[in-house]
TrEMBL record:
Signal sequence residues: none
Ranges of residues in domain Rhodanese: 22-107
Origin species: Pseudolactococcus plantarum
Pfam families xref list: Rhodanese
Name of this chain's protein: NADH dehydrogenase
InterPro entries named among the record's database cross-references: GlpE_sulfurtransferase (IPR050229), Rhodanese-like_dom (IPR001763), Rhodanese-like_dom_sf (IPR036873)
Amino acid sequence: MINKMRIKSVAKIVDSAEFTTHLTGGQLIDLREAAEFRRAHILGARNLPFSQFDQSISAIRKDKPILFYETAKPIFSIRAALKLKKAGYTNIFILKTGFKEWSGKVKKGA
C-alpha cells in the first residue's frame, strides 16, 4: 500500500492513449538496453538504458514532461522516476503496459 502511494506521488502510470497525448513536447525515454532499442522503439524515443541511468540524469530537462517506457511491466521506470523526483524533477509519466503492448508508431532497426 505504501509503495503504491509513493509511486503515485512521483509519477503517473498511464495507458497508451494518455501516454500518446503527452508525446508532443515531452521527452520520450526508452529505458531498455541499447540492443533492444536498436531492434525497435517508439518513434521519437531516445535511449537511456536503466543500467546507465544515474550517469544520464543531467541529459533530462526539468522543464518538459518526461515519458518513460520499457519492455513490459514498469519496474525500472518506477525506479527511474523515484530517482528523478529525488533530484527535483516533476511531470513524469510511465507507460503502464510497456513497449510490448504499444500500438502507436514504431521505428524498426536493422
